[in-house]
Design a protein that fits this description.
Elements lengths: L25 E4 L2 E4 L34 H4 L4 E11 L8 E11 L4 E6 L10 E7 L21 E5 L2 E8 L1 H9 L14 H13 L11 H7 L3 E9 L8 E9 L4 E7 L13 E4 L20 E5 L7 E4 L22 E4 L2 E8 L1 H10 L31 H7 L12 H6 L9 E8 L4 H4 L2 E7 L4 E6 L10 E7 L27 E4 L2 E8 L1 H9 L9 H9 L3 H14 L7 E2 H10 L6 H10 L10 H15 L4 H11 L6 E3 H10 L6 H10 L6 E3 H8 L11 H9 L12 E2 L1 H9 L9
Antiparallel strand pairs: 1-2, 3-4, 3-8, 4-5, 5-6, 7-8, 9-10, 9-16, 10-11, 11-12, 13-14, 15-16, 17-18, 17-22, 18-19, 19-20, 21-22, 23-26, 24-25
Helix pairs in contact: 12-13, 14-17, 15-16
Pfam family, one: DM10_dom
Function: Microtubule inner protein (MIP) part of the dynein-decorated doublet microtubules (DMTs) in cilia axoneme, which is required for motile cilia beating.
Subcellular location: Cytoplasm, Cytoskeleton, Flagellum axoneme
C-alpha cells in the first residue's frame, strides 16, 4: 500500500544525500575521443542500470571478534601454496622443457601476491623472487580486477602475466584458513618429474664408485674442540748428562688435531738461553726415536694392481685390508695423566700437574675426580735477613728506612685506609681527649691541668693547657702534634721505635711524654663512648672483661661487698653514691684501673633527665621570629581553622607541620618538631591556639633570652640536657649480673 502524501513523506530520492559528484566517462586516448568509463558509477557513486558492485579487496565472512579492518586483523598472516610451471627449452636437445617448482605467497592484509622459486645448487638459471610482492590483475578480459583469496584452491591453475602456475598443495595454516572460509579444497596433486634433473641425478650416481674410498673426516673434531688446549706442568731430570740440570716444562695438548707442543720455563739467572719452543707442535710418537723410512713406504693407500695404460684411461685396485700399511702409535689425551712418564723423543718427561680447564675436561670425559699434584721443585732456601743500618738521627726513622730500601728514596707510605675511616666526619671528631696532670713535686705544677688529645687518624698526640686565672702560668700549646715514642728505647738502633697507641691511653694511665710524666685523670664523654663501642680494641673499656674480673673475687670478699651495700643503703633503694661505689672497687684485690671503675659506673648508673624548659624554647622561637620580622599569625589562625573540620581546636602534628612550612615559618626543623611535641595532647594532636599564642611575639612576648642560652639550646635541639655525670649506681642490677641472681642483701 502506497504511503499517502503526508507531511514528512516524499518521493524525492535525493533527500538525505550528501554526495552528488559525477564520474568521468569520456577522455582522449592517443588524440581520439572515446568512452573510457563504462564501469564507473553514476552520480554520487550510485550504480547505473545494469552495473554490479565489485569488491576492491577480498571479502571475509563476519565472525566473532572486534571487527577490525583486514590490514589489522590479518597482519603478518600469509597463505602459502606449492606450485610449478613448465618452461620451454627450444635451444637444447637434452631437454624440451623444464619443470620449475615455486612457492606462491598470498598476503591477507592487502591481497598482494609474491612468487618465489627456491634456489637449487648448480641449476644454471637465475632463481629466487620471480614476481615481487604486489597485486596481480586477472587475465584478460577481466584485467581490470585483481586476484583475491577466492581465486586460489589446490589442484587448480592460476595465470600470472600469461604464465600458468599449477597449485599442487598448501601448508596446514592455509588449509585451515580456506576451510574456515567455506572453500571446498580439492585433493593435492603431484608435481611431475623434470627430465633434465632426472638425467643429472643418473649421471652423478654413475660417477660414484661402487667401493668408495675410506673417508678421513677430522672437521667434526676441529669444530668441536677448536681453541681448546690442555695444559700440563712437566719435569725433565737431565742431571745425569754433562752440565745438565732439572728442567721445568709446560706441555700443550691441542684437542682440535691431537698435536702437542712444549715450552721450557727458564728461571732468571739460570745461564741458559731462552728458546721459543722446546718441542714444535706436532703429533708425538710413543716409540720415539722411530727408524727412517724410504719415500713411498709410508702411504695411506696400497696399490695392488694397475690395468691399462698409465695415466688417463688406466685403472688400479687398492688394498682395502691395508696389509702393507705401517701403523704408528701417537700420544692421545687418554695417555696424559698426572704421574705418567711420556717419551719425548728419547727424553723421559714426568707430568706433575695441570690447570683447571684440564681437570674439568678429564672430570667430564673420563670421570676422574682426584688430581694429586707431584712436588718436583726443591724448597727455596730461606731468605737472609736484611741488615738495616742504625738510625742516623736525621729526619724521622721511617724516612731514613725508606732511603735504605732503594736507590731512589721514596716518602714513607701512610695508612690511607685508616686515615679515611678515622678522619673527622661531621660532628664526630675521632679524637680522644683526656684530662691530665703532671706528676711532680712542685706545688705549682701539680695544680696545672692539661688536655691530652690523641688523633686516631695517624696516632699523633697533642697537649694543650687551658689558661687559668691567677695561676701564674700562661696557657696554650704545650706539645706540638706528633707521634710520641715510648720511654726506655735506644735512639740509634736498626729496629723501628715503638710509639704510643690509643690502647696506651686510659683514665689512670701514666704517660711519659718527652721526659715529662703525666697522669690521666679524666676524659670527655665521646672518649668513653668511643672506647665502649670499640671494646674489642680497648680492653680497659670492655664491660665483659671487667665483670669477669669482679666475678673472680673470693666468697669472703663477696660477703664483704654485700655487707657494704647493706650498710650504705639502709633503706634498700637499690642504689648508692658513686664515690662509695668507687671506694669499694678500689679496695678489692682485682686490680681494677680507674678507667675500668668509671666504665662499670657508667653502665650501672642511674640517670635522671631534667624537665624540659618550655619557656626557654618559646623564648628562642620568638627571638628567631622577631629577627626575621614574621607577623603572619592571623593568616596562620585562619589556615588552621580551615583545616580543622571538626572545630575541636586540634590538628595532627603532620597537618600542623605542613601549614607551618606553607607559611615559611623561619624556625629550624628540630626546634619546630620540639615545639609541636610539647603542645601535643594525649591524643597526639596539636592545640594550635596555644601553639600560635606561644610563638606570637607581638601579643604575648616573653622575656629575652641570653645569648649563651640560645647557643646552648641550639646545640641540643631536642631540649634535653647533656648527659649528666655518674652520681648514683644501681648496685642491685650489678649484683644480679655478677653473681647470676638477684640476691637479697638484707638476708646476707
Amino acid at each position: 500500500m502506497a504511503l499517502p502524501m503526508l507531511p514528512g513523506n516524499s518521493v524525492n530520492r535525493n533527500l538525505g544525500k550528501d554526495k552528488f559528484h559525477k564520474s568521468q566517462h569520456f577522455d582522449y586516448s592517443n588524440g581520439v575521443a572515446m568512452m573510457v568509463g563504462t564501469e564507473k558509477p553514476g552520480i554520487g557513486g550510485d550504480l547505473l542500470l545494469g552495473q554490479s558492485a565489485r569488491a576492491k579487496y577480498s571479502r571475509f565472512p563476519k565472525g566473532e571478534g572486534s571487527g577490525a579492518p583486514a590490514w589489522l586483523a590479518f597482519d603478518k598472516q600469509v597463505l602459502c601454496f606449492d606450485a610449478y610451471f613448465n618452461e620451454d627449452v627450444p635451444q637444447r636437445r637434452e631437454e624440451k622443457y623444464r619443470v620449475r617448482k615455486c612457492k606462491i605467497y598470498f598476503y591477507l592484509e592487502d591481497d598482494t601476491i609474491q612468487v618465489v622459486e627456491p634456489e637449487f645448487k648448480n641449476s644454471g638459471i637465475p632463481q629466487g623472487t620471480l614476481i615481487r610482492r604486489h597485486r596481480i590483475p586477472l587475465p584478460a578480459p577481466k584485467d581490470d580486477c585483481f586476484y583475491n583469496v577466492h581465486h586460489f584452491n589446490i589442484n587448480q591453475e592460476v595465470v600470472f602475466y600469461s604464465r600458468n602456475f599449477m597449485i599442487t598443495d598448501c601448508d596446514p595454516f592455509t588449509r585451515n584458513f580456506l576451510i574456515k572460509m567455506g572453500v571446498r579444497l580439492n585433493p593435492p596433486a603431484s608435481t611431475p618429474a623434470d627430465p633434465y634433473t632426472t638425467l643429472r641425478q643418473e649421471l652423478e650416481e654413475n660417477m660414484k664408485p661402487l667401493r668408495p674410498y675410506e673417508r678421513l673426516d677430522t672437521l667434526k673434531q676441529f669444530l668441536e674442540h677448536d681453541r681448546q688446549v690442555l695444559r700440563f706442568y712437566c719435569y725433565w731430570d737431565d742431571s745425569e748428562s754433562m752440565f745438565g740440570d732439572p728442567r721445568e716444562l709446560i706441555l700443550h695438548y691441542f684437542l682440535a688435531d691431537d698435536t702437542m707442543e712444549m715450552y721450557e720455563v727458564v728461571p732468571p739467572n739460570s745461564g741458559r738461553d731462552t728458546v721459543p719452543k722446546f718441542l714444535h707442535r706436532g703429533k708425538l710418537p710413543k716409540h720415539a726415536p722411530i727408524p727412517k723410512r724410504q719415500p713411498g713406504e709410508i702411504t695411506d693407500r696400497t696399490v695392488l694392481n694397475v690395468f691399462g695404460p698409465v695415466g688417463q684411461g688406466g685403472r688400479y685396485i687398492l688394498d682395502s685390508l691395508k696389509t702393507g700399511a705401517l701403523e704408528e702409535e701417537f700420544y692421545k689425551d687418554s695417555d696424559l695423566t698426572i704421574g705418567a712418564v711420556i717419551n719425548v723423543w728419547g727424553r723421559r718427561v714426568l707430568i706433575c700437574d695441570c690447570d683447571y680447564f684440564t681437570k674439568e675436561y678429564y672430570r667430564s670425559k673420563y670421570g676422574i675426580e682426584d688430581f694429586p699434584s707431584i712436588s718436583y721443585k726443591a724448597s727455596p732456601p730461606p731468605k737472609p735477613a736484611k741488615q738495616v743500618p742504625p738510625y742516623t738521627g736525621f729526619g724521622s726513622e721511617e724516612d731514613s728506612l725508606c732511603s735504605c730500601q732503594g736507590l731512589l728514596p721514596k716518602p714513607p707510605q701512610k695508612d690511607f685506609k685508616k686515615l679515611m675511616e678515622k678522619d673527622r666526619q661531621g660532628l664526630v671528631s675521632n679524637v680522644l681527649r683526656f684530662v691530665g696532670k703532671m706528676l711532680t713535686d712542685s706545688p705549682v705544677d701539680k695544680e696545672r691541668v692539661f688536655i691530652i688529645c690523641f688523633y686516631l687518624t695517624d696516632d699523633t698526640i697533642a697537649v694543650f693547657e687551658p689558661p687559668q686565672r691567677n695561676s701564674g702560668v700562661i696557657g696554650g700549646k704545650f706539645l706540638e702534634r706528633g707521634r710520641v715514642k715510648k720511654p726506655g728505647q735506644e735512639l740509634f738502633k736498626s729496629e723501628m721505635s715503638e710509639y704510643f697507641t690509643a690502647q696506651d691511653l686510659y683514665v689512670g694511665a701514666h704517660l711519659l711524654l718527652n721526659s715529662q710524666p703525666f697522669q690521666l685523670v679524666d676524659a670527655d664523654d665521646f672518649t668513653f663512648s668511643y672506647m665502649e663501642q670499640h671494646a674489642d680494641e680497648f680492653p680497659k673499656a670492655n664491660i665483659g672483661t671487667i665483670i669477669s674480673k669482679v666475678k673472680s673475687i673470693s666468697e669472703e670478699q663477696q660477703k664483704k661487698v654485700k655487707q657494704f651495700f647493706t650498710m650504705s643503703d639502709p633503706s634498700s633503694t637499690g642504689s648508692l653514691p658513686y664515690e662509695s661505689f668507687r671506694t669499694l672497687l678500689a679496695d678489692l684485690d682485682v686490680e681494677l684501673s680507674e678507667h675500668e671503675i668509671m666504665t662499670l659506673g657508667r653502665v650501672y648508673s642511674v640517670r635522671q633527665q631534667p624537665e624540659v624548659n618550655v619557656g626557654l624554647m618559646l623564648a628562642v622561637a620568638q627571638d628567631h621570629l622577631k629577627k626575621k620580622n614574621f607577623e603572619k599569625f592571623s593568616e596562620m589562625i585562619q589556615a588552621f581553622t580551615h583545616e580543622d573540620r571538626d572545630r575541636c581546636g586540634q590538628l595532627s602534628s603532620k597537618e600542623a607541620r605542613i601549614i607551618c612550612k606553607a607559611f615559611r615559618l623561619p624556625l629550624s626543623d628540630d626546634l619546630l618538631r620540639a615545639l609541636l611535641e610539647k603542645f601535643a595532647g594525649e591524643s597526639e594532636k596539636i592545640d594550635y591556639h596555644a601553639f600560635l599564642s606561644g610563638i606570637n611575639w607581638r601579643e604575648n612576648p616573653v622575656p629575652a633570652v641570653l645569648p649563651e642560652d640560645t647557643v646552648k639550646f641550639d646545640a641540643d635541639w631536642r631540649g634535653e640536657a647533656p648527659e649528666p655525670a655518674v652520681k648514683t649506681i644501681n648496685y642491685s642490677l650489678l649484683l644480679e649480673d655478677v653473681f647470676g641472681s638477684a640476691t637479697n642483701i638484707n638476708d646476707s
